[in-house]
Amino acid sequence: MEHHVDSGDFDWDAVENDDNLELWVIRVPEGVKPKHLEDLKLDAPSTSKTSRIGSIDRKHTSYDVWSLGDHDEDESVGGEELRGLSCLLPRQKKGGKLYQAPKPVARHLVISARPTLPTPAHSSDSSSQSSPLTSHNPARFCYPKEVLKHRFMPLGSLAPVEDLSEIEVDAALLVKKPSHQSHTAAQERGDTSGKKRKGGGDVPKKSKKAKMAA
């Protein structure tokens, strides 16, 4: 690749000829400059496990330095894209052109801002100071139902329950209806029975022939 740059300490031949040199890929946030990495002391990173190996303290922000393991994936640290990167180094003998690095990347480092922790409340009791402070979200404000104009009703949700007064009225009507029907049925049965009784109580009149014989 034709890209003429100053090789400096990253000359392709210098890296190849020195067995004590390793290639490290470091992801640096916007608030950290390359000069802040000078004289930085780090613990020996592990190649198999993701671990915190150092820190960088600035005026307003503190940063943690993480070493990514080869097979350990920690979603909270990030930097998974670093494992797929390759390195190009300038070669002075070839006019400063960029070539694929003669060595693989040995370490992948991620520098990330340290998450802020809640400040513990001041107390005279030493035991309360030593106990961890749990942060809770404030309670959500609850609006009264009469001021809410719209209601979210997704498909498949249950219909709202009707007013209790309407349910009681409907129940009363249902109870009265069968009583009226039963009363009408009783009247009809009474009429038919009365007719039968009248027909059965009449005595047949004697014929004239029967009177004369008597």
TrEMBL record:
It holds the Pfam family RNA_polI_A34. Residues 116-138, 175-214 are annotated as: Disordered. Gene3D superfamilies: 6.20.250.70. Residues 123-135 have a biased composition (Low complexity). Residues 186-205 have a biased composition (Basic and acidic residues). Signal peptide: none annotated. InterPro entries: DNA-dir_RNA_pol1_su_RPA34 (IPR013240). It comes from the Eukaryota. GO terms for biological process: transcription by RNA polymerase I. This is Uncharacterized protein. The lineage of its organism: Eukaryota, Fungi, Dikarya, Basidiomycota, Agaricomycotina.
